Protein backbone atom coordinates (compact mmCIF):
# COMPACT_ATOMS: atom_id res chain seq x y z
CA UNK A 1 0.00 0.00 0.00
CA UNK A 2 1.48 3.29 -1.18
CA UNK A 3 2.40 4.85 -4.52
CA UNK A 4 5.44 2.67 -5.07
CA UNK A 5 4.43 -0.16 -7.38
CA UNK A 6 6.47 -2.72 -5.48
CA UNK A 7 5.42 -1.44 -2.05
CA UNK A 8 3.73 -4.71 -1.12
CA UNK A 9 7.13 -6.44 -1.22
CA UNK A 10 8.65 -4.06 1.32
CA UNK A 11 9.85 -6.07 4.33
CA UNK A 12 8.09 -3.73 6.80
CA UNK A 13 4.69 -3.89 5.08
CA UNK A 14 1.74 -6.25 5.28
CA UNK A 15 1.51 -7.56 1.70
CA UNK A 16 -2.31 -7.39 1.70
CA UNK A 17 -2.58 -3.92 3.30
CA UNK A 18 -4.61 -2.56 0.34
CA UNK A 19 -7.50 -4.82 1.32
CA UNK A 20 -7.32 -4.12 5.06
CA UNK A 21 -9.63 -1.44 6.47
CA UNK A 22 -7.39 -1.04 9.51
CA UNK A 23 -4.45 -0.04 7.30
CA UNK A 24 -6.46 2.83 5.81
CA UNK A 25 -7.82 3.82 9.20
CA UNK A 26 -4.30 3.97 10.59
CA UNK A 27 -3.17 6.24 7.72
CA UNK A 28 -6.26 8.45 8.10
CA UNK A 29 -5.60 8.81 11.85
CA UNK A 30 -1.94 9.72 11.31
CA UNK A 31 -2.94 12.29 8.68
CA UNK A 32 -5.66 13.76 10.90
CA UNK A 33 -3.50 13.93 14.03
CA UNK A 34 -0.96 15.84 12.00
CA UNK A 35 -3.52 18.25 10.47
CA UNK A 36 -3.36 17.24 6.83
CA UNK A 37 -6.15 18.73 4.71
CA UNK A 38 -7.39 15.54 3.19
CA UNK A 39 -6.99 11.89 2.38
CA UNK A 40 -7.11 11.25 -1.36
CA UNK A 41 -8.05 7.90 -2.90
CA UNK A 42 -7.35 7.21 -6.57
CA UNK A 43 -9.40 4.50 -8.25
CA UNK A 44 -9.86 2.27 -11.24
CA UNK A 45 -12.97 0.17 -11.77
CA UNK A 46 -11.37 -3.07 -12.71
CA UNK A 47 -7.93 -4.59 -13.03
CA UNK A 48 -6.55 -2.09 -15.51
CA UNK A 49 -3.62 -4.07 -16.79
CA UNK A 50 -3.41 -6.99 -19.13
CA UNK A 51 -0.78 -9.65 -18.63
CA UNK A 52 1.72 -8.02 -20.98
CA UNK A 53 4.53 -8.91 -20.72
CA UNK A 54 3.38 -12.35 -19.58
CA UNK A 55 3.83 -12.86 -15.86
CA UNK A 56 3.52 -9.16 -14.97
CA UNK A 57 -0.04 -9.27 -13.65
CA UNK A 58 0.49 -11.88 -10.95
CA UNK A 59 3.48 -9.86 -9.72
CA UNK A 60 1.44 -6.67 -9.24
CA UNK A 61 -0.52 -5.70 -6.11
CA UNK A 62 -2.70 -3.24 -8.02
CA UNK A 63 -5.34 -5.83 -8.74
CA UNK A 64 -7.17 -5.84 -5.41
CA UNK A 65 -8.25 -2.84 -3.39
CA UNK A 66 -11.31 -1.50 -1.60
CA UNK A 67 -13.96 0.60 -3.39
CA UNK A 68 -13.13 4.18 -2.31
CA UNK A 69 -16.56 5.63 -1.55
CA UNK A 70 -17.51 2.64 0.61
CA UNK A 71 -14.14 2.91 2.33
CA UNK A 72 -14.50 6.65 2.92
CA UNK A 73 -17.98 6.20 4.41
CA UNK A 74 -16.43 3.90 7.00
CA UNK A 75 -13.52 6.30 7.59
CA UNK A 76 -15.94 9.23 7.95
CA UNK A 77 -17.41 7.65 11.05
CA UNK A 78 -13.98 7.10 12.64
CA UNK A 79 -12.46 10.54 11.93
CA UNK A 80 -13.61 14.07 12.72
CA UNK A 81 -11.56 16.64 10.88
CA UNK A 82 -9.70 15.26 7.91
CA UNK A 83 -11.13 15.73 4.41
CA UNK A 84 -12.08 12.58 2.49
CA UNK A 85 -11.74 12.63 -1.30
CA UNK A 86 -12.66 9.66 -3.48
CA UNK A 87 -12.26 9.14 -7.21
CA UNK A 88 -15.25 8.19 -9.39
CA UNK A 89 -15.60 7.90 -13.14
CA UNK A 90 -17.98 9.94 -15.30
CA UNK A 91 -17.83 7.26 -17.98
CA UNK A 92 -19.21 4.41 -15.90
CA UNK A 93 -21.65 6.13 -13.56
CA UNK A 94 -24.84 8.15 -13.80
CA UNK A 95 -24.78 11.76 -12.53
CA UNK A 96 -27.68 11.19 -10.15
CA UNK A 97 -25.83 8.30 -8.47
CA UNK A 98 -22.71 10.39 -7.99
CA UNK A 99 -24.59 13.47 -6.75
CA UNK A 100 -26.52 11.35 -4.27
CA UNK A 101 -23.63 9.24 -2.97
CA UNK A 102 -21.16 12.11 -2.54
CA UNK A 103 -23.95 14.34 -1.24
CA UNK A 104 -24.67 11.69 1.38
CA UNK A 105 -21.00 11.24 2.28
CA UNK A 106 -20.82 15.00 2.71
CA UNK A 107 -23.69 14.76 5.23
CA UNK A 108 -22.18 11.76 7.02
CA UNK A 109 -18.80 13.48 7.32
CA UNK A 110 -20.29 16.90 8.22
CA UNK A 111 -18.86 18.65 5.17
CA UNK A 112 -15.52 16.89 4.67
CA UNK A 113 -16.07 15.08 1.40
CA UNK A 114 -14.75 15.54 -2.14
CA UNK A 115 -15.08 13.91 -5.55
CA UNK A 116 -12.09 13.41 -7.85
CA UNK A 117 -13.63 13.50 -11.32
CA UNK A 118 -12.05 11.08 -13.80
CA UNK A 119 -13.11 9.72 -17.18
CA UNK A 120 -11.27 6.34 -16.83
CA UNK A 121 -8.67 5.31 -19.32
CA UNK A 122 -8.48 1.56 -19.71
CA UNK A 123 -10.15 -0.94 -22.03
CA UNK A 124 -10.46 -3.32 -19.07
CA UNK A 125 -12.84 -0.93 -17.32
CA UNK A 126 -15.08 -0.83 -20.42
CA UNK A 127 -15.35 -4.63 -20.35
CA UNK A 128 -16.90 -4.44 -16.89
CA UNK A 129 -19.64 -2.08 -18.06
CA UNK A 130 -21.27 -3.66 -21.10
CA UNK A 131 -18.82 -2.26 -23.63
CA UNK A 132 -16.33 -4.02 -25.87
CA UNK A 133 -14.27 -0.84 -26.26
CA UNK A 134 -13.54 2.18 -24.11
CA UNK A 135 -15.29 5.40 -25.20
CA UNK A 136 -13.05 7.55 -27.39
CA UNK A 137 -11.22 10.43 -25.73
CA UNK A 138 -13.38 13.29 -27.06
CA UNK A 139 -16.68 11.60 -26.28
CA UNK A 140 -15.46 10.72 -22.81
CA UNK A 141 -14.60 14.33 -22.03
CA UNK A 142 -17.76 15.72 -23.65
CA UNK A 143 -19.75 13.35 -21.43
CA UNK A 144 -17.63 14.34 -18.41
CA UNK A 145 -18.29 18.07 -18.93
CA UNK A 146 -22.05 17.52 -19.12
CA UNK A 147 -21.89 15.03 -16.22
CA UNK A 148 -20.27 17.59 -13.89
CA UNK A 149 -22.81 20.26 -14.94
CA UNK A 150 -25.61 17.89 -13.95
CA UNK A 151 -24.04 16.84 -10.64
CA UNK A 152 -23.36 20.42 -9.52
CA UNK A 153 -26.86 21.37 -10.66
CA UNK A 154 -28.33 18.57 -8.55
CA UNK A 155 -26.26 19.66 -5.55
CA UNK A 156 -28.02 23.05 -5.83
CA UNK A 157 -31.46 21.42 -5.53
CA UNK A 158 -32.03 22.73 -2.01
CA UNK A 159 -31.24 26.16 -0.62
CA UNK A 160 -29.30 26.02 2.65
CA UNK A 161 -32.35 27.15 4.65
CA UNK A 162 -34.97 25.12 2.76
CA UNK A 163 -35.90 22.83 5.65
CA UNK A 164 -38.16 24.56 8.16
CA UNK A 165 -39.36 21.40 9.93
CA UNK A 166 -42.35 23.25 11.36
CA UNK A 167 -44.24 20.58 13.27
CA UNK A 168 -47.03 23.05 14.18
CA UNK A 169 -47.97 23.95 10.61
CA UNK A 170 -46.90 20.57 9.21
CA UNK A 171 -44.50 22.19 6.74
CA UNK A 172 -41.33 20.12 6.30
CA UNK A 173 -39.64 22.38 3.75
CA UNK A 174 -40.21 25.73 2.08
CA UNK A 175 -41.36 24.96 -1.47
CA UNK A 176 -39.79 28.12 -2.87
CA UNK A 177 -36.37 26.85 -1.78
CA UNK A 178 -36.48 23.61 -3.74
CA UNK A 179 -35.21 23.73 -7.34
CA UNK A 180 -35.90 21.17 -10.04
CA UNK A 181 -32.95 20.90 -12.41
CA UNK A 182 -34.81 19.67 -15.52
CA UNK A 183 -31.60 18.90 -17.43
CA UNK A 184 -31.94 17.62 -21.01
CA UNK A 185 -28.64 17.36 -22.90
CA UNK A 186 -26.74 15.22 -25.36
CA UNK A 187 -25.72 12.52 -22.90
CA UNK A 188 -28.10 12.91 -19.97
CA UNK A 189 -31.69 13.61 -19.18
CA UNK A 190 -32.05 14.26 -15.45
CA UNK A 191 -35.08 15.92 -13.93
CA UNK A 192 -34.01 16.15 -10.28
CA UNK A 193 -34.29 17.44 -7.64
CA UNK A 194 -31.72 15.56 -5.56
CA UNK A 195 -33.05 13.69 -2.54
CA UNK A 196 -30.12 14.85 -0.38
CA UNK A 197 -30.00 18.26 1.29
CA UNK A 198 -27.28 20.87 0.87
CA UNK A 199 -24.24 20.09 3.00
CA UNK A 200 -22.35 22.05 5.63
CA UNK A 201 -19.76 23.05 3.02
CA UNK A 202 -22.37 23.87 0.33
CA UNK A 203 -21.37 20.95 -1.80
CA UNK A 204 -18.54 18.41 -1.91
CA UNK A 205 -15.12 19.61 -3.02
CA UNK A 206 -14.51 18.91 -6.71
CA UNK A 207 -11.10 17.67 -7.81
CA UNK A 208 -9.87 17.12 -11.36
CA UNK A 209 -6.63 15.62 -12.63
CA UNK A 210 -6.74 15.80 -16.43
CA UNK A 211 -4.20 18.09 -18.05
CA UNK A 212 -5.74 18.33 -21.52
CA UNK A 213 -7.55 21.40 -22.84
CA UNK A 214 -11.00 20.10 -22.01
CA UNK A 215 -9.82 18.75 -18.63
CA UNK A 216 -8.63 22.24 -17.73
CA UNK A 217 -11.92 23.76 -18.90
CA UNK A 218 -13.90 21.49 -16.60
CA UNK A 219 -11.57 22.41 -13.74
CA UNK A 220 -11.88 26.14 -14.43
CA UNK A 221 -15.67 26.01 -14.55
CA UNK A 222 -16.40 23.85 -11.52
CA UNK A 223 -13.43 22.48 -9.59
CA UNK A 224 -11.90 23.46 -6.27
CA UNK A 225 -8.66 21.51 -6.69
CA UNK A 226 -6.57 20.43 -9.63
CA UNK A 227 -4.39 17.45 -8.84
CA UNK A 228 -1.38 17.83 -11.09
CA UNK A 229 1.30 15.36 -12.03
CA UNK A 230 4.26 17.63 -12.79
CA UNK A 231 7.94 16.86 -12.40
CA UNK A 232 9.48 19.95 -13.88
CA UNK A 233 9.03 23.36 -12.27
CA UNK A 234 9.08 25.27 -15.56
CA UNK A 235 6.32 23.21 -17.17
CA UNK A 236 4.40 23.27 -13.87
CA UNK A 237 4.51 27.09 -13.89
CA UNK A 238 3.04 27.12 -17.39
CA UNK A 239 0.34 24.67 -16.41
CA UNK A 240 -0.44 26.66 -13.25
CA UNK A 241 -0.83 29.86 -15.28
CA UNK A 242 -2.89 28.11 -17.94
CA UNK A 243 -5.37 26.75 -15.37
CA UNK A 244 -5.59 29.99 -13.36
CA UNK A 245 -6.01 32.17 -16.47
CA UNK A 246 -9.19 30.34 -17.35
CA UNK A 247 -10.94 31.21 -14.10
CA UNK A 248 -11.98 34.81 -14.73
CA UNK A 249 -13.99 33.94 -17.85
CA UNK A 250 -15.92 31.54 -15.61
CA UNK A 251 -16.70 34.29 -13.11
CA UNK A 252 -14.13 32.95 -10.63
CA UNK A 253 -10.93 34.26 -9.08
CA UNK A 254 -7.47 32.69 -8.80
CA UNK A 255 -8.16 31.87 -5.16
CA UNK A 256 -11.16 29.71 -6.05
CA UNK A 257 -9.05 26.87 -7.46
CA UNK A 258 -6.04 25.29 -5.77
CA UNK A 259 -3.39 23.50 -7.74
CA UNK A 260 -1.90 20.60 -5.78
CA UNK A 261 1.14 18.86 -7.19
CA UNK A 262 1.69 15.18 -6.45
CA UNK A 263 4.89 14.89 -4.36
CA UNK A 264 6.71 11.73 -3.33
CA UNK A 265 9.26 12.57 -0.62
CA UNK A 266 11.94 10.03 0.21
CA UNK A 267 13.37 11.52 3.37
CA UNK A 268 16.32 10.62 5.53
CA UNK A 269 18.13 12.26 8.43
CA UNK A 270 21.01 12.64 6.00
CA UNK A 271 21.13 12.69 2.20
CA UNK A 272 22.98 9.37 2.26
CA UNK A 273 20.24 7.79 4.33
CA UNK A 274 17.61 9.08 1.87
CA UNK A 275 19.58 7.72 -1.10
CA UNK A 276 19.87 4.37 0.63
CA UNK A 277 16.08 4.27 1.12
CA UNK A 278 15.64 5.11 -2.56
CA UNK A 279 18.00 2.32 -3.56
CA UNK A 280 16.19 -0.22 -1.37
CA UNK A 281 12.87 0.78 -2.92
CA UNK A 282 14.29 0.39 -6.44
CA UNK A 283 15.19 -3.21 -5.67
CA UNK A 284 11.52 -4.02 -5.08
CA UNK A 285 10.59 -3.41 -8.72
CA UNK A 286 10.25 -6.54 -10.78
CA UNK A 287 11.28 -5.90 -14.44
CA UNK A 288 8.04 -7.49 -15.72
CA UNK A 289 5.98 -5.10 -13.60
CA UNK A 290 8.19 -2.24 -14.78
CA UNK A 291 7.51 -3.05 -18.43
CA UNK A 292 3.78 -3.42 -17.78
CA UNK A 293 3.71 0.13 -16.38
CA UNK A 294 5.32 1.47 -19.53
CA UNK A 295 2.91 -0.49 -21.71
CA UNK A 296 -0.07 1.82 -21.22
CA UNK A 297 1.94 4.80 -22.46
CA UNK A 298 4.39 3.21 -24.90
CA UNK A 299 3.00 -0.20 -25.86
CA UNK A 300 4.88 -3.44 -25.16
CA UNK A 301 8.61 -2.72 -25.08
CA UNK A 302 9.73 -6.17 -23.91
CA UNK A 303 11.34 -6.93 -27.31
CA UNK A 304 13.67 -3.93 -26.91
CA UNK A 305 16.97 -3.65 -25.02
CA UNK A 306 15.99 -2.50 -21.52
CA UNK A 307 19.19 -0.50 -21.31
CA UNK A 308 18.49 1.22 -24.63
CA UNK A 309 16.61 4.46 -25.34
CA UNK A 310 12.87 5.02 -24.77
CA UNK A 311 10.91 5.13 -28.06
CA UNK A 312 8.44 7.95 -28.88
CA UNK A 313 4.88 7.10 -27.74
CA UNK A 314 1.88 7.03 -30.08
CA UNK A 315 0.01 9.83 -28.33
CA UNK A 316 -3.22 9.45 -30.32
CA UNK A 317 -3.70 5.96 -28.92
CA UNK A 318 -2.15 6.34 -25.47
CA UNK A 319 -4.73 5.86 -22.69
CA UNK A 320 -3.13 8.54 -20.54
CA UNK A 321 -2.01 11.11 -23.09
CA UNK A 322 -0.58 13.64 -20.68
CA UNK A 323 1.38 11.02 -18.73
CA UNK A 324 2.79 9.44 -21.91
CA UNK A 325 3.97 12.85 -23.07
CA UNK A 326 5.51 13.67 -19.70
CA UNK A 327 7.35 10.33 -19.36
CA UNK A 328 8.79 10.70 -22.83
CA UNK A 329 9.94 14.25 -22.13
CA UNK A 330 11.56 13.16 -18.87
CA UNK A 331 13.36 10.27 -20.59
CA UNK A 332 14.59 12.61 -23.35
CA UNK A 333 15.67 15.35 -20.97
CA UNK A 334 17.57 13.07 -18.62
CA UNK A 335 18.70 10.48 -21.18
CA UNK A 336 16.97 7.63 -19.33
CA UNK A 337 16.97 4.06 -20.63
CA UNK A 338 13.80 1.94 -20.61
CA UNK A 339 14.90 0.32 -17.33
CA UNK A 340 15.72 3.65 -15.70
CA UNK A 341 12.38 5.09 -16.81
CA UNK A 342 10.27 2.27 -15.38
CA UNK A 343 12.24 2.39 -12.14
CA UNK A 344 11.54 6.10 -11.95
CA UNK A 345 7.82 5.68 -12.67
CA UNK A 346 7.43 2.73 -10.31
CA UNK A 347 8.86 4.84 -7.49
CA UNK A 348 6.18 7.50 -7.53
CA UNK A 349 4.22 6.97 -10.74
CA UNK A 350 3.92 10.37 -12.38
CA UNK A 351 4.68 12.45 -9.31
CA UNK A 352 7.51 14.77 -8.40
CA UNK A 353 10.06 12.86 -6.32
CA UNK A 354 12.42 14.55 -3.89
CA UNK A 355 15.11 12.43 -2.25
CA UNK A 356 16.96 14.12 0.59
CA UNK A 357 16.75 15.61 4.06
CA UNK A 358 13.78 17.44 5.57
CA UNK A 359 15.39 20.72 4.49
CA UNK A 360 15.74 19.49 0.90
CA UNK A 361 12.06 18.53 0.77
CA UNK A 362 10.91 21.76 2.45
CA UNK A 363 13.14 23.80 0.11
CA UNK A 364 11.58 22.15 -2.94
CA UNK A 365 8.06 22.71 -1.63
CA UNK A 366 8.74 26.37 -0.91
CA UNK A 367 10.42 26.85 -4.26
CA UNK A 368 7.44 25.45 -6.17
CA UNK A 369 4.93 27.45 -4.16
CA UNK A 370 6.85 30.72 -4.37
CA UNK A 371 7.33 30.27 -8.12
CA UNK A 372 3.56 29.81 -8.63
CA UNK A 373 4.02 26.25 -9.78
CA UNK A 374 1.85 24.86 -6.96
CA UNK A 375 -0.57 26.04 -4.26
CA UNK A 376 0.07 22.92 -2.24
CA UNK A 377 1.00 19.27 -2.52
CA UNK A 378 -0.70 15.95 -2.59
CA UNK A 379 1.79 13.82 -0.67
CA UNK A 380 2.08 10.45 -2.38
CA UNK A 381 4.16 8.28 0.01
CA UNK A 382 6.00 5.31 -1.51
CA UNK A 383 4.88 2.85 1.18
CA UNK A 384 2.40 3.30 3.99
CA UNK A 385 2.43 4.19 6.78
CA UNK A 386 6.27 4.26 6.96
CA UNK A 387 6.95 6.90 4.31
CA UNK A 388 4.11 9.03 5.70
CA UNK A 389 5.61 8.72 9.18
CA UNK A 390 8.98 9.86 7.81
CA UNK A 391 7.30 12.94 6.33
CA UNK A 392 5.43 13.65 9.56
CA UNK A 393 8.46 13.20 11.82
CA UNK A 394 11.05 14.95 9.66
CA UNK A 395 9.45 17.33 7.16
CA UNK A 396 6.41 18.69 9.02
CA UNK A 397 8.46 20.20 11.89
CA UNK A 398 10.68 21.86 9.31
CA UNK A 399 7.68 23.26 7.42
CA UNK A 400 6.16 24.49 10.70
CA UNK A 401 9.43 26.12 11.67
CA UNK A 402 9.26 28.02 8.39
CA UNK A 403 5.63 29.03 9.02
CA UNK A 404 4.43 26.95 6.07
CA UNK A 405 2.19 24.44 7.78
CA UNK A 406 -0.69 24.72 10.25
CA UNK A 407 -0.63 23.72 13.91
CA UNK A 408 -4.40 23.33 14.08
CA UNK A 409 -7.32 23.04 11.67
CA UNK A 410 -8.76 26.47 10.90
CA UNK A 411 -12.33 25.35 10.28
CA UNK A 412 -14.79 22.50 10.57
CA UNK A 413 -15.41 21.63 6.93
CA UNK A 414 -12.88 20.63 4.28
CA UNK A 415 -13.76 23.78 2.32
CA UNK A 416 -13.00 25.97 5.33
CA UNK A 417 -9.68 24.24 5.95
CA UNK A 418 -8.72 24.72 2.32
CA UNK A 419 -9.60 28.42 2.61
CA UNK A 420 -12.22 28.15 -0.15
CA UNK A 421 -15.51 30.03 -0.36
CA UNK A 422 -18.83 28.18 -0.39
CA UNK A 423 -19.88 28.28 -4.07
CA UNK A 424 -23.01 30.27 -4.83
CA UNK A 425 -26.02 28.20 -5.78
CA UNK A 426 -26.93 28.54 -9.47
CA UNK A 427 -30.35 29.71 -8.25
CA UNK A 428 -28.97 32.44 -5.96
C1 LIG B 1 -2.38 13.06 -10.91
C2 LIG B 1 -3.38 12.24 -11.66
C3 LIG B 1 -4.20 11.34 -10.96
C4 LIG B 1 -5.16 10.59 -11.63
N1 LIG B 1 -5.95 9.71 -10.95
C5 LIG B 1 -6.81 8.92 -11.63
C6 LIG B 1 -7.59 7.93 -10.97
O1 LIG B 1 -7.53 7.76 -9.77
N2 LIG B 1 -8.42 7.16 -11.72
C7 LIG B 1 -8.54 7.31 -13.08
O2 LIG B 1 -9.31 6.59 -13.68
N3 LIG B 1 -7.83 8.26 -13.73
C8 LIG B 1 -6.96 9.04 -13.05
N4 LIG B 1 -6.23 9.97 -13.72
C9 LIG B 1 -6.47 10.16 -15.14
C10 LIG B 1 -7.14 11.49 -15.43
O3 LIG B 1 -8.33 11.64 -14.76
C11 LIG B 1 -7.36 11.66 -16.92
O4 LIG B 1 -8.32 10.75 -17.41
C12 LIG B 1 -6.10 11.45 -17.67
O5 LIG B 1 -5.09 12.25 -17.10
C13 LIG B 1 -6.25 11.76 -19.16
O6 LIG B 1 -6.68 13.05 -19.34
P1 LIG B 1 -5.71 14.24 -19.75
O7 LIG B 1 -5.16 13.88 -21.09
O8 LIG B 1 -6.62 15.43 -19.76
O9 LIG B 1 -4.67 14.32 -18.72
C14 LIG B 1 -5.28 10.73 -13.05
C15 LIG B 1 -4.45 11.63 -13.72
C16 LIG B 1 -3.52 12.37 -13.07
C17 LIG B 1 -2.66 13.31 -13.86
TrEMBL record:
Pfam families: Bac_luciferase. One of its GO terms (molecular function) is oxidoreductase activity. InterPro entries: Diverse_substr_monoxygenases, Luciferase-like_dom, Luciferase-like_sf, NTA_MOA. CDD domains: Nitrilotriacetate_monoxgenase. Residues 17-371 form the Luciferase-like domain. Gene3D superfamilies: Luciferase-like domain (3.20.20.30). SUPFAM superfamilies: Bacterial luciferase-like (SSF51679). Keywords: Flavoprotein, FMN, Monooxygenase, Oxidoreductase. It comes from the Bacteria. Signal peptide: none annotated. Transmembrane segments: none annotated. Its EC number is 1.-.-.-. Belongs to the NtaA/SnaA/DszA monooxygenase family. This is LLM class flavin-dependent oxidoreductase.
Amino acid sequence: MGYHLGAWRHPDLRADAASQFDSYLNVAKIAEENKFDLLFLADGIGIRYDDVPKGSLCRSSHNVELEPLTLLSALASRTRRIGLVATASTTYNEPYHIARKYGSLDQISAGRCGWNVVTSWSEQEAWNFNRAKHLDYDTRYERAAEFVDVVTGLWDSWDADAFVHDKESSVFYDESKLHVLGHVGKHFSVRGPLSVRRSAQGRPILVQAGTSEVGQQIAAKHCDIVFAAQQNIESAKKYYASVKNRLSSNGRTEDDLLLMVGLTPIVGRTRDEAQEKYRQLEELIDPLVGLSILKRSFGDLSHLDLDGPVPKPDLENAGLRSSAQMYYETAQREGLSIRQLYKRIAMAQEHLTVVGTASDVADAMEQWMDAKAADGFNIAPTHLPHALNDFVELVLPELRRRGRFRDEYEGETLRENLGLQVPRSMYA
